[in-house]
Each structure stands twice: as structure tokens, then as C-alpha cells.
């Protein structure tokens, strides 16, 4: 039996899907997936990624949707609704992860906004590495962090249907069109062929190595915004006629599709301009140094392409950030019975303050990211799989509402009980030490 049906609702199923896809699609889609694909077997990695999406990402995503819609509350109250008071701690982990990520994600989002506006009005700096070093930290970075945070809070404050849904319905189709258009443009550049080869050439030699398996499973999990309560929170505004397995499948496929097409932009572009040697494992280095260098090489066309590319990054950053903020706003509203405006102001003020060290010191940003993604998200996802598979009574009942696809029920709970925990524990074995090392480097 569901609870708290007096809360806000999405205006349409399409609006929910655009918002949920927007939450999943972020800055990492535009480079991290592409780089991992290129460095871990090309098409072979894509195959393994899709497999991990089914084995790890999909089951946890559907679990978040089921718990959120069934409880119709934010993470803390939703976990307490199904598991009792002690399980509210897991909800608190979700909220903490969302809050921490929002605080530093806004800093990176501020960079994208600055680069997009510079592309329009002044063009790209002829010394991109030096320029990035100057604008990525300090008072400038802090100012752009606050600007982006303020804009995101304005959208969240307007509510689900009038704020988040309306924004997502407008900007997400634009992002799809822009990314596809950029991929078509990259295909027309002379010398782009080796870029496709680098990106997609199959190499099955390391397909089942520990590293490749870990990378594929981690990307499948991270890219769907799991373990931070975003999908759970968005699902809490759904009505009971929504088909959760189908919607979960659409979200996962769309997230993968945008990431894959982004790779068809980046690598052909870099290879066509003989910048392949500048390809690095650093997301920040590629997005803010290597690609601006490529856009400079293209002249006026590069300025247009660069504006569109960074515009797409701004959209991805915006839709992801508002979902993170909504996790905290919904939880404050549930736990302390605050109205949306009060909860938004408290959330925004605290997140802006916590993000200040990340704006002033890029090492602090890296440490915060390592803790959030490698400890909080993975640990939260592992606990959620255990909760849904072993603690929650008859979780299948929530999936049946609005769905006639009962076959998924035969594999969903077994995956959450036996497969997902093993894979996530396997990933955490290698990722947690990385987070601790990043934190230790600050002192």
C-alpha cells in the first residue's frame, strides 16, 4: 500500500522520463564513457557495459523506482516506510551523497557555463591549458559556482511540474538533437576515420579482466545516477499507472545512447585535427583543454561547434544538478515538514557553502568526488540491493502496479539478492582505497 499521495505529481509520463534521463545524463556521459570504451576494448567494452547495465544498473534502477513510487516520499522516509526506523540511515546515506555531489558538481557546471558563454562572445582562449588553470579555481570559479547553483535552485523552487518537468521537456530534446547533429558534423571531417577505429575497434583480449569488468560495471552504475536517491525521489512523484520496468528500460537506453553518440563526436573530431596525442584519462583535461584546442583549429566553424557542445554540457549539468538538489529538498520537506521554498533555500545555501572549498582548490574537488562516487554511491547501492532483495516484503507487488510485464519479476529479485551485491562489492574492493588516497592527499 502506498503512502502520502497528497504530494506533487508529474504532469505526464513523458515529463518524468525527460527529467529522469536528464538526471542520468551528465558531464561524465560526454567523455568518461567514450574514454573507457576506447581504452578497454572498443565494441567489446560496449557489449560488456550493456551486460553490466542489465546485471547491475537495471535492477538497482528499478528498485529505486519501485521504492520511491510505493512510498511516495523522499529517501529517508521511503526506506523507513518499507524497512522500519533503522533503515532510515540508508536513506540518509542517499541524501548525503546527493548533497555532497551537488556541492562540487555545481563548480564543474559553472565552468561549462563560462566556457559556453565565452564561445559565444569572445571565442576560445588560444592557450586552453593555461586558461583552464586560471578559471578552474579561485574567486572566478566560486562566482560561477554560485551563479549556476542559483539558477538550478530557481528551477527546483518552482516545483515538479512547473519547474523541473517544464525545464526537462524543453532542454532534453534539444540536447538529443545537438549531440546527434555534432556527431553528423564530425563524420564529415577529413581524417575522422581513425577516430572511429580508436573508439570502436573490437579487442576481446581483456574482456574479462578484473579491470575491464570493474570499469564496465562501475560506469553502468554511475551513469544512471544510482545510489544517491535521485531516481527514488523522482519516482515518488509518479502515479500508480506508470509502467516501471518499461520506464526504467527507456531511461537506461537513453543514457547509454547519449554517451555512445558523444563518443562519435569527440574521437573523430580529435583525430581529424591530429590531436589524438592529447587524449588523456582526465575528464577535465579533455573537456576543458583538449576539445577547446580542437575547436580553435576549426576556426569560425569550431566556434559554432564549440558553442553547441558546451551548450549540451550545460544542459546535462543543469538537469543532473536539479535532480541532486531535489533529493535533499524532498527529504527536508518530508522530515521537517518544510514548504518547498524553505527547503530549497536551506539546501542551496548549505550546498553553495560546502562547494566553496571545491571552487578554491581542485584537489578538494577531486577528494569530494572520490568519496561520493567510490564510497557513498557504491555503498548505498550495495545496501539498497540487499534491502530490496532480502528485507523489503514482496517488492514485486509494486512493479505489478501499472505493468503487465511479469517475466521481469522472475529475474529481478534474484539479481538483487545474489548478483548485484557481489559485483558492487568487487568494485568497492578496488575503489574505496582510491577514495581514501585522494582524501589523504589533502593533508
Helix content: over 70%
For the biggest sheet, the summary is: none
Radius of gyration, taken over Cα atoms and rounded to an integer in Å = 21 Å
Tell me the total number of β-strands: 0
- Strand percentage: under 5%
Return the string of H and E elements: HHHHHHHHHHHHHHHHHHH
How far from one another are the termini? Answer: 50 Å
CATH class category name: Mainly Alpha
What is the number of independent domains?
Answer: 1
What does this protein structure show overall?
The chain is mainly α. It has one domain: Hydantoin permease (Orthogonal Bundle), CATH 1.10.4160.10. The chain is 77% helix and 0% strand. The protein contains 19 helices and no strands. Helix 1 crosses helix 12, helix 1 packs across helix 14 and helix 7 runs antiparallel to helix 15.
In short:
The chain has about 450 residues and is mainly α.
Ordered list of secondary-structure elements with their pairings:
Layout: H1 13-24, H2 32-39, H3 43-71, H4 75-83, H5 88-121, H6 128-135, H7 139-157, H8 160-187, H9 193-200, H10 210-222, H11 230-235, H12 244-272, H13 283-297, H14 300-336, H15 340-354, H16 356-360, H17 362-391, H18 396-400, H19 409-440
Helix pairs in contact: 1-8, 1-12, 1-14, 2-12, 3-4, 3-10, 3-12, 3-17, 3-19, 4-5, 5-7, 5-14, 5-15, 5-17, 6-13, 7-8, 7-14, 7-15, 8-12, 8-14, 9-12, 10-19, 13-14, 14-15, 17-19
